[in-house]
Amino acid sequence: MLVHGSAKQVSEVPKEMISWMMIRMLTLGMSVVELDGDYVNLLKDLYQKPVIPIGLLPPRLQGILGSSDSSGDSSKHSNSEMFHWLDRQQPKTVVYVSFGSEYKMSVDEIHELAFALETSKLPFLWVLRKPEGIDQSSLLPSGFEDRIRGRGFMCFGWISQVKVLSHTAIGGSLCHCGSSSISENLFFGHSQILMPMILDQGINAKFLAEKGLGFEVERNEDGSFTRDAVKKAMRIVMVEPEGQQLRQKAAEMSKNIFSNHELHEDYVRKFISSLGQLLGK
User: Fold this and answer.
1) pLDDT tens, position by position, 45-63
2) 72 exposure class (CB count in 10 Å sphere: 0-12, 13-18, 19+)
3) What residues contact residue 182 under an 8 Å CB cut-off, 6+ apart?
4) What pLDDT is stored for residue 11 in this prediction?
């Protein structure tokens, strides 16, 4: 499972040590055998070296969830309204919608997605980043916010994604399949509606679908999507009987792997032990 790492931590390791380690073993950052066992074994066969996963390094939520909001005053006000809205929703019913910071949707894509959310009849929280050069008055379909008022909530500023995903109202996520978002969603046991856009997101989506941890939105031959395809995927993942197994598996994976700190601490201990053995040779 490829998830986010710390560039600062990597930069602090001497280059000579990294080269030495690469000669003797392969280290899989943010990976566990319970999830990636087939790929770990394949790498062992290909490179004929020990392959050492170091776990997913899940966050310690005490500090994150208890920290104060460091955003500006306007974002604080918006976030307060957002959490008040979430507090009024039923548990595990809200779809969290976000496509990260790397990909900016076109206005046509935003409108198509808006119609999908509207017609899905599901509660949703949409974090939307405005494309450059676009006036906010033309960003959404005419009358959209009035039609979804109460059932949907729009957020145009900064939010703490982990805090939102930790809320009991969130039940699933419509996302771009970025590595960090995948890890954070599964940490909380959320089913995922997969809609990859760029970079490694397509590979991540295929991996999740293969593992039964998400349902990918069907695309046209040119890569575009339709409101009907998005709506269908949302309803399967969130409420339809067809998605019951997805929902159960996401919850199981959260408990057994993604939020299991003891498991990941054991991976780190094994990695340190393996490194010590190599250094002793």
Assistant:
1) 998 888 889 898 887 776 5
2) exposed
3) 1, 3, 175, 192, 204, 208
4) 44
